[in-house]
Amino acid sequence: MNGKGSQIIDQSLLNRLSGMAVRIKRRVEGNMTGKHRSPYHGSSVEFAQHREYVPGDEIRHVDWRSYARTDRYYVKQFEDETNVRVHLVIDTSESMDFSHAAQDTKFLYSCRLAAAMAWCFIRQGDAIGLLAHGNRVVKYVPPSAQANQFWRVVETLEDIKPHGPTRLGDALLKVAELSGRRSHVIILSDCLDFDGRLTGLARQLANRSHDVTVVHVLDRAEIEFPFGEVTRFEELESEEFLLVDPRAMRTEYLRQVEAWRAQLKAQLREGNVNYMPVMTDDNVEHVMFEWLAGTQR
Amino acid sequence: MNFLSPALLVGLIGMIIPPILHLLLRRKPKVVRFPALEFVLRAHKKTSRSFRIRQIMLMTVRSLLLGIVAFSLARPILNDSAQGRMTAEQARGAMVFVVDTSYAMDYKLNGEALIDRARIRISNILSQSQASAGLVLVGGETKTPLSELTADAGAIRRQLDEVKLSQGVGRLDEGIMRGLELLEDAPQDVSRTVFVFSTPSGLRRASEISYEQDRTKVIFVDVSEGTPLPNCAVLGVSVEPAPTMGSGYWKIAARVRNFGTKAINTLPIRLEVDKKVLVNGFVDLSAGEETEKVFFLPLNRDTAAAAFIIIGTDPLTIDNRYPFWLHPAPTIRVLAVNGDPQPTPYKDELFYLDRAIEPALSQGARMKLTIAEVDTIKRKKLKQFDVIILANIPELAPRDARAVDGFVRSGGGLLVTAGARVIPRKINALIGSLLPRTLRSSRIAGDAAASAEGRDRRVGFLTASTQEHPILANFSPDDLFGLKQTRVSRYMLLEPTPSSGGRTVLSLDDGSPILLTKTVDKGRVGLLATSLDRDWTDLPIRVHFLPILVQTVRYLARTQAMDSSTHLVGQKVVLKPSSASIERVQIEAPDGTLHTQSKPTNPTEAWVFKDTNRLGHYHVRPDPPMADGEQMAGFAVALDTQASNLGAYKPKGDIDNQDQSNPSQAGKEPPVELWHMGLALLFLLLLAEAGLIYGRQGDAPFTDQGGSSSEAITQAPSV
Fold first, then answer.
1. Which residue of A has its CA nearest to B713?
2. pLDDT score at B361
3. Which partner for B595 in B279, B317, B587, B684 could form a disulfide, CB atoms 3.0-4.6 Å apart?
4. ipTM of the assembly?
5. pLDDT of residue B229
6. Rounded to a whole number, what is the distance in Å from the CA of A174 to chain B's nearest CA?
7. Beta carbons of A256 and B707 less than 8 Å apart
8. Do B703 and B65 form a contact (C-beta atoms < 8 A)?
9. Residue A120 and residue A118: Cα distance in Å, rounded?
10. In angstroms, what CA-CA distances link B654 with A98, A100, B195, B660?
């Protein structure tokens, strides 16, 4: 593990996360028995529903107590637990390479979150993959449940340097292409992509039975706009700049950002997409536990 | 609108300080690489316009703040009354205020004294001007309380506040000349103005002279502003004997004038003696009329009394009182030399004289008669007498004649009466130089007149040759008509000496002089060309005998009227000590001030007293007091009533022109100072600035990062 890897991985955090289980709310398709609910009913101990007996059903699944009460044959169906394919999509656009007041950059913070999430998934036997995407696919690690998959992901993250504009829409199209089965897609981005495709594609993924989570990583300076004197703002992903007095426009800026965040949240949740806003000054451990708690509900 | 400190308007240049500071102190902007530029752009699009407007307003407010400060410091004034406006040139030039401080300025116009109105107007002018100014006060004398022009308006106001009106009448022309002298020290390139504040009467007198000089203007300011100033005044008082009212009666005539344009009926007038009202009366005065109010008063007292004539109150009270002294008439000591004494009383030459004077004495007439005979003259000290009567004396011893001559020439009075015993040749030789005409011989009266009438009558009738002679001044026409009944049977014919210098008082109907007077050096001589007894005339038994005799003696003794002469305020008074031994006197002024005056060492120099600056009675006492308690006559000082005529003043020339810069109205209206409005505006601008700053900073929580407000201008966005 090189120096950057030490920034991404906090071993003590990984140790504390070792005993935590990640639950996927939606049913996901896997090729191994795992912790997650499968769309296929199997032989797990968790009762799912009754169904009328049809020829071909196994006799052992007939619920004889129901037969005694209703004089009709019902078959007991049980939840089938399976492992999950997780796609970690991380935004590598240059806008992620921003930090204010000596915080971590949004990209580094996203890497740390992604590593922690990958650790949780790999520890419970899920397959994890990584798609690093800026304006194109930067890196792709296919999903795998092998033990060294975690380190493969981490090493990939270490090698990425944020660059170029954001094309989150393209990233989601790539995910849809790569994940044929129902899987869990976690997108870590600042979402500063205003072409309007992000929410639409995320909702499409969700409609295709994928469990989609958008981790909206922002720097607190982007939320509170703490600038006081005449400032030349330069765009990270382009050559644009603007010379303004921030005091004159702070209120309007905050209103715009808040409206944008609210709209993003509403649209994603409307499309059954999980939305999880985080700040780069939030404690990663707290964020992880909050995320894990959310997956349990 | 004008400015009292227009030079400070230079401060308006300060209005460009905010934009200059903005340009000079702009900081290099901080560069931030910021991912959410899209939102910054959106917010900027929405706020840039209002923010730019607010910033421009803020800079405008700050520029206005500095401008308002300069504007207020320049002391803007607004005078809505065009008449009260000074020209800007006058406001910046040099000026001198010549203020009349005579008693007339005490006139109460609507309850406010004219001097107070002058104070206010001068104060108003000073408030409008930045000029150096001087002050000349013209009362009884002309004063310059500030020796030179000063820019300290407060000093002039203080001097004006301390002004006490004089009871004298000053010479405004002299004050104006003094003002012009003060202005000579002013810079050459500024306008020079002399403002003359006075009553209409003062301005009338002063404006008769032209004072115009190059760059110097004399402006007459009528402090009454043309308002009629009705006023009445006592102009003078005369005191004369009134023998027709009885012995000891005096006629006190007060001259009163109405200077107003409306008639005044039943104006109260009273005579006060020793602060007691003795007589009350009323006078009616038509507009502008002068009338005489006469009081008759018996005076039987030995000491002088302070008296006032006082008329009813009006807005100017000081000229309603006129002081004078009622001096007791001196006792005339008469030495009558009887040239024809007779054992039978009624045949005695002086029988009728003695009998006539005796009842008069009992009624208060002041005459002391001493009778002597010709050969006893030498035993008399003639200096102890005021008048000597030589009644029908045939001659005089040369020594006695020389004594009589010296007596007359040193101021004594001599009455020579004719009679059968008179020897004209000897009399002419001894005292002929004293007589109005020398004697020729006795003559039976009536010859010439009777011849002219074609009749044969042996008497002549007395007639008054002139009524203007002091002896006959108190005789009415009826009295003079009664005098014509007096018969004269014989008289002394006089030599025709036209160059003798005598005046004929009484004559016969044929023109022959009967009573003549002549002044010889300091003395006076009378010649009665008929007898004092009934030998030649029936005059001694006529009612006019006593008045003619008493008036003649008074005339010869130079005491024919009471000395009630009154001096005017500011005039010198010649002191006349009753005794040559008085070397020093103490004079008590009406206000109680004591003045000590020593006799001049030069005997030819008059002993004068100058400090007559108060109206009223002055008491004069020998210092130290005389052993015999003899007092000196005091004197009274009255106002010079030429200032009492407060009729309207009509200005001449351009002053009459009621244009918008009429200088004679200067200071009439107080200027409206606008600096406090500037202050209010300043306050509002500060509030506006605070509001604008608050509105701007409400967007920025981190003021510690803010730059100076002058640089807080949004730069033109360039994307």
1. A245
2. 58
3. B587
4. 0.76
5. 87
6. 25
7. no
8. no
9. 5
10. 86, 83, 15, 12
Contact B707 A240 (CB under 8 A): no
CA distances from A57 to A52, A69, A74, B99, B391 (A): 10, 20, 10, 135, 197
Q: Which residues of chain B have pLDDT under 70?
A: 1, 4, 78-92, 212-214, 243, 246-248, 300-302, 328-330, 359-366, 447-457, 498-501, 559-565, 578-580, 626-632, 651-672, 695-719
Nearest CA in chain B to A221: B34
Place of tokens 């009753």: B578
What is the rounded distance in angstroms from the CA atom of residue B634 to the CA atom of residue B325?
8
Nearest to A242 among B41, B699, B711 (CB): B41
Query: What is the C-alpha separation between A135 and A163, in angstroms, rounded?
Result: 8
Contact between residue B43 and residue A249 where contact means Cβ atoms under 8 Å apart: yes
Reply yes or no: is the peptide bond before residue B701 cis, omega within 30 of 0.
Answer: no
What's residue B210's pLDDT? 77
Pick from B35, B48, B706: which is nearest to A247 by CB?
Answer: B706
A vs B: CB pairs below 8 A = 141
B715 to A231: CB separation less than 8 angstroms, yes or no: no
- Long-range contacts, stretch B447-456, CB < 8 angstroms, 24+ apart: B447/B510, B448/B510, B448/B511, B448/B512, B449/B508, B449/B509, B449/B510, B452/B510
Which residues of B fall within a CB distance of 8 Å from A230?
Answer: 27, 29-30, 707, 711-712, 714-715
Quick one: how many helices (H) and strands (E) in chain A? 10, 10
Q: Are the Cβ atoms of B51 and A249 closer than 8 angstroms?
A: yes
Task: Using an 8 Å CB-CB cutoff, list chain A residues near B702.
Answer: 226-228
Residues in A touching B39 (Cβ below 8 Å) = 253, 256-257, 260
Q: How confident is the model over B570-583, as pLDDT tens digits?
A: 888 888 776 667 88
Report the residue of chain A nearest B31, measured CA to CA. A232
Bridge partners of residue A87, in order along the sequence = A129, A185
Exposure letters A66-100 (e unless 16+ CB within 10 A, then b): beeeeeebbbbbebbbbbbbbbbbbbbbbbbbbbb
Q: Does residue A188 carry a pLDDT above 60?
A: yes
- Buried-state track B466-502, b at ≥16 Cβ within 10 A, e below 16: eeebbbbebbeeebeeebeebbbbbbbbbeeeeebeb
Q: What's the one-letter identity of residue A250? A: R
Tell how far CA B307 is from the center of its chain. Answer: 19
Q: Mean of the per-residue pLDDT values for chain B?
A: 81
- CA–CA gap between residue B425 and residue A94 (Å, rounded): 162
Tell me which of A93, A218, A229, A250 to substitute to probe the interface with B (most B C-beta atoms closer than 10 Å).
Answer: A229
Nearest CA in chain B to A220: B36
Q: What is the DSSP string of A204-267?
A: HHHHTT-EEEEEEEE-HHHHH----S-EEEE-SSSS-EEEE-HHHHHHHHHHHHHHHHHHHHHH
Instruction: Write down the pLDDT at residue B532.
Output: 92
Q: Is A223 on the interface with B (CB under 8 A)?
A: no
Instruction: Name the pTM for this structure.
Output: 0.48
pLDDT of res. B712: 31
**pLDDT value of residue A280:** 92
- Model pLDDT for residues A118-160, shown as the tens digit of each residue: 998 888 888 899 999 888 888 999 988 887 889 999 999 999 9
Order of strands, sheet of B192-198, starting from the edge strand that comes earlier in the sequence: B142-143, B133-138, B94-100, B192-198, B216-222
Distance from the B20 Cα atom to the nearest Cα atom in chain A, whole angstroms: 18
**Residue A23: is its pLDDT beyond 90?**
no
* Cβ atoms of residues B285 and B231 within 8 Å: no
